[in-house]
Amino acid sequence: MADTHRSLAEQIPAIVSLLVLGMGLTALFLGYHWFWIVFVIGFAVVLPITALLSQSLFGNENGSEWRGDETEPERTDERQDALNVLRERYARGEIDEAEFERRVDLLLENETIEDVEARQTDGERELN
Fold this sequence. Notes:
Elements (H helix, E strand, L loop, with lengths): L7 H22 L5 H24 L5 H4 L4 H21 L4 H13 L3 H15 L1
């Protein structure tokens, strides 16, 4: 099922865009020769200002309780940190290419760093 929840900060610019479009088309159909000014001012001035204001006012509301995005940045940061450590160790020559690739594959296969550590200790037990 697709997640259709959108935060208020995402909805306000869309509403303003529809209002500007509606006002400009109304002015066009009523025969006002300055109808194009509504589009220029609306889309070039009002919409960006509204988007910035809505993001600054409602930017903290990211809908994470609906989308489950709360844990993803931590996971990505952990994974990126671990990958950076692996790259540094490979660059210093502490591990060879095969070991580097094996560990990168382990990182990509698992959800967290703890999963990788648990899998490595399981593999060491199997070898003994």
